[in-house]
Amino acid sequence: MNIHEYQGKELLRRYGVAVLEGHVAWTPDEAAEAAKKLPGPIYVVKSQIHAGGRGAGRFKEDPNGKGGVRLAKSAEEARAAADAMIGKTLVTKQTGEGGKVVSRVYVEAGCDIGRELYLGLLVDRATSRLTIMASTEGGMEIEEVAEHHPEKILKVAVDPAAGISGFHARKLAFGLGLTGGQVRNFEKFVAALYKAVIDLDCAIVEINPLVVTKAGEIVALDAKVSFDDNALFRHKDLEELRDDTEMDPKELDAVKNDLNYVALDGEIGCMVNGAGLAMATMDIIKLYGSSPANFLDVGGTANAARVTEAFRIITSDANVKAILVNIFGGIAKCDMIANGIVEASKNLSLSVPLVVRLEGTNVELGKKILAESGLAIIPADNLADAAQKVVAAVQAARNGAAAVKKGA
Ligand code: ADP
Ligand code: MG
Where does substrate bind (predicted)? Predict the structure, then answer.
């Protein structure tokens, strides 16, 4: 789960991570009020969306105007900046062409920037450790630095059992060319950030840029905080930071129904139990020349209600031209799944071809239920057969549509 910059900074502040004072504002008036609470004379008004590259981004409504991060020299200028952002669509390198609507801004104290660095902390699955990454190339996209100047990214791995020590941070500090008091400030900063990442079960925290001020302070000027979804149950208080408007509505629906769903841009809707089987199903659809519209794992405890929910989410995607159900009945029995499919198909008056492959416990009974349902369900015997049938069904539907067009 991702959160907004201002929320991330608020959390990090509690752990003693150095951030500047700032206030969130939902209206231009609130932005002016927020600026008045800050010392001045420089304020920065920052669009809050779940995407980076805001500074260099442009608003759809004003493509030749300024970006999503603007300086203001008075409360009135802060109000004007907020007015130019709130309710507008910001397009950045990370949002895609559609952009994202800004619903609120963060008004922050201006910073006297000396140097802009990069600092990231993430769980590295390969080493089973936390990796701290740092670079002198702050402010730019770290992916580009990684591609063109990998030597400019410094890495230190921390064994979570032993925890962080001063030498981890010092090693990075010297690599970054920090000196004297800057090194001590950096050490403090990294230790506080590490504690926040562990306590909050973050998957990744990126500070880009991490700034060395002219006075030698180390400050987080940006903060991207992302939590490990599998640990969110331990942090009920973080749930309220979820911004539903930033999520794909189908994915949001899936989260609420406890389904593992990721929207993709293909044409075949998939309903599968088990992540491994779901991956294999997506692969084989590709192999036979089409592409999946989603990843959906209904889980080992799939039942009729979940099957219905899953169908509802899949069919709400206009790109779905056919559905492939691939269920291995273990704990979830095939007859129960078959009943769920029949019920859901009727309730949702399904209009696209549906291919079903069942295997496992009570498979014969499950197949019988589908066959006797009176619905136009296409049965399949194995994974390859199912994939071929669903791809053929999509192509037949496309050819049919083309023929109708030609005839007209
Ligand atoms: P994004 O990464 O989405 O573009 P950032 O928060 O990194 O947004 O801001 C972009 C740039 O704006 C920073 O690299 C920095 O130069 C400048 N900036 C951001 N916040 C401040 C601030 N409080 N004071 C001065 N400059 C800032
Ligand atoms: Mg940034």
Answer: 273, 330-332
DSSP state of 74: S
138 C-beta closer than 6 A to ligand 1: no
pLDDT tens, residue by residue, 286-337: 999 999 999 998 876 667 778 888 888 998 888 999 999 999 988 888 998 8
**2 DSSP 8-state letter:** B
pLDDT at residue number 52: 92
Instruction: Please report, in range form, the residues annotated as the binding site.
Output: 46, 53-55, 108, 111, 116, 208, 222, 273, 330-332
Q: How far is CA 237 from CA 47, 162, 232, 242, 252, in A?
A: 24, 28, 9, 10, 18
**Ligand 1 closest atom vs CA 52:** 3
Asked whether residue 303 falls in the same domain as residue 374, the answer is yes
Within 10 angstroms of residue 408's Cβ, the number of other Cβ atoms is 5
Instruction: Give residue 209 CA to ligand 2 midpoint distance, Å.
Output: 6
Residue ranges with strand state E in 127-259: 129-135, 153-158, 202-213, 218-220, 224-227
Distance between CA atoms of residues 353 and 342, nearest Å: 13
Looking at 56, 74, 109, which one is the last position of a domain?
109
Q: What is the DSSP letter of 169?
A: H
Angle at 202 between CA 129 and CA 52, to 5 degrees: 110
Q: Residue 66 sits in which domain range? A: 21-109
- Just list the catalytic residues: 118, 206
CA distances from 66 to 35, 47, 62, 70, 110 (A): 19, 12, 8, 7, 17
